[in-house]
Amino acid sequence: MRLYRILVEVLFLGVFALACGGSEEKPANSEKASQPSVAQSEAVPTVAGVAPQTMQRGKQIYDSYCKTCHQANGQGIPGVYPPLAKSDYLQDKRKVIHALVFGLSGPITVNGKKFNGVMPPAPYNDQDLAAVLTYVYNSFGNPGGIVTPEEVAAVRKAGK
Ligand code: HEC
Q1: What is the spatial distance between Cα 156 and Cα 103, in angstroms, rounded to a whole number?
Q2: CB of 96 within 8 A of CB of 107?
Q3: Is the CB of residue 125 below 6 angstroms from any atom belonging to ligand 1?
Q4: What is the dihedral of CA 152, 155, 158, 160, to 10 degrees?
Q5: To test ligand 1's pocket by mutation, which of 119, 132, 139 has the most ligand atoms within 8 angstroms of CB?
Q6: CB–CB of 65/73 below 8 Å?
Q7: What number of CA atoms fall less than 13 Å from residue 43's CA on the CB side?
Q8: pLDDT digit string, tens, across residues 43-89
Q9: Are 111 and 142 a contacting pair, CB within 8 Å?
Q10: How far is the CA of 48 from the centre of ligand 1 (A)?
Q11: Rounded distance between C-alpha atoms, residue 54 and residue 103, angstroms
């Protein structure tokens, strides 16, 4: 009687283990795991001369703050939030820093499309703004570039 029970248990465990192992090997599952989720932002870029922690911080600020409006891959929302991805507005660094430090409103044109919204001043210090802007300049297909805390401080000091 006891031997019979042990036999049944061993058999049950064996079947269970097989079922688990089998499902792990299903190609459908491994495919899913290797595909990045659509909602995810880009990876942290590596920028020569910028500490990896600074880029991490930049991405963290982007994901927790800027992403709400400018979206996960900086594509924005047509007619509402302008894109940061390949934005020609980024060419003028001082103007960009000014927009973040003091906010931006009124009509602007980005990549030939008109926007007329309101961006509030970003509630971050010079170091954090430099980090998030350097992250933006090196993400979303943008051409690169570095924004330093000193540059942000200078724009802040010059005033509106
Ligand atoms: C509450 C929504 C909101 C948030 C949050 C926000 N923005 Fe904006 N941003 C806007 C709007 C709206 C405009 C356009 C303002 C206008 O039409 O004058 C804009 C414009 C810009 C521009 C200039 C135009 C362009 O697309 O190149 C840049 C650069 C920018 N934002 C970067 C950022 C960064 C970086 C952050 C995070 C630190 C951020 N924004 C957070 C709404 C937002």
Answers
A1: 12
A2: no
A3: no
A4: -120
A5: 119
A6: no
A7: 4
A8: 899 999 999 999 999 999 999 999 999 999 999 999 999 999 999 99
A9: no
A10: 26
A11: 23
Tokens of 74: 């900086």
Among candidate residues 116, 3, 142, 5, the one with its CA nearest the CA of residue 62: 142
- Find out whether 76 and 82 touch, Cβ atoms under 8 Å: yes
In single-letter form, the type of residue at position 99 comes to A
Say if residues 84 and 140 touch (Cβ distance below 8 Å).
yes
Tell me how far apart the alpha carbons of residues 156 and 160 are, in angstroms, rounded to a whole number.
8
Atom 39, ligand 1: residue with shortest CA distance: 66
Over residues 110-126, the pLDDT tens digits come to 999 999 999 999 999 99
CA distance 59 to 131: 8
Among candidates 54, 63, 69, 73, which has minimal Cα distance to 126? 54
Tokens of 150: 């000193």
